[in-house]
Write a structure and sequence with these properties.
The chain has 5 helices and 12 strands. The protein is α/β, with parallel strands linked by helices. The chain has a single domain, classed as 3-Layer(bba) Sandwich (Glucose Oxidase, domain 1). The strands form 3 sheets. A 7-stranded mixed barrel has the order 4-10-9-7-5-11-12. α2 packs across α4 and α4 runs parallel beside α5. It is globular. Bound molecules: zinc ion.
Length: about 210
């Protein structure tokens, strides 16, 4: 069984959402300066790199990231490869024939090529999930949706897709790096940091081949 790390590396070079805080990492205690240990400080937004959106991100009465059900974030998952698609609509998903009873879907799109190329600038023309695509997944009983760019929704169209998913209790995982992963079945472990009352949190995410 192979383990795939599908997590982006957090560094100041990582692209961040326009308007969100950038990443700063600073070593505040240094052994070479006489400190007992090296200690670093990290300053960044909670939607940095590979991360989970809590319902509270878009829903004022939604639960926060520390309240998410971890059983949704771990278990059988299906990676769907859609290399030719610019927008993931209900029609695209219908045609893709996701296996029956799939509860967790990760989308591998042309977005993953950006991570393979170590792109450091934010891109606006990334592939996203449409509102009707979100509705389709909710109807199918999907409980976790993952995307290989920094938002599940197309640029400038965040709210409808996020609302349909989050109000249905679907966990949204963004910023996945699926470069090394082929379409198929895996087990996912995606564990967001337990930050009190937060609208999101960075996560370490891995897939294990089954
Ligand atoms: Zn987010």
């Amino acid at each position: 069984m192979r383990t795939y790390d599908i997590t982006l590396t957090i560094s100041p070079d990582l692209p961040t959402w326009p308007g969100d805080p950038g990443v700063e990492i600073e070593r505040v205690e240094k052994i070479e300066d006489g400190s007992n240990a090296n200690v670093s400080r990290v300053d960044m937004g909670v939607h940095t790199g590979t991360h989970v959106d809590a319902p509270y991100h878009f829903l004022q009465d939604g639960i926060t990231v520390d309240e998410l059900n971890l059983s949704l974030l771990t278990g059988r998952a299906y990676v769907l490869h859609l290399p030719e698609v610019d927008l993931i609509t209900a029609a695209v998903l219908e045609e893709a024939q996701i296996p029956p009873r799939t509860r967790r879907v990760l989308f591998k799109t042309r977005n993953s090529e950006l991570w393979a190329g170590a792109e450091t600038e934010f891109q606006t023309d990334f592939v996203g999930l449409s509102e009707d695509g979100a509705e389709y997944l909710v109807r199918r009983g999907v409980k976790l949706v993952g995307m290989d760019y920094l938002s599940i929704a197309p640029f400038k169209q965040s709210r409808p897709t996020h609302e349909r998913l989050l109000e249905a209790g679907v966990v949204v995982v963004e910023g996945l790096n699926l470069t090394e992963v082929d379409q198929g079945r895996y087990t996912i472990y995606c564990l967001p940091l337990k930050i009190a009352n937060s609208d999101g949190a960075p996560a370490r995410a891995i897939l294990i081949g089954v």
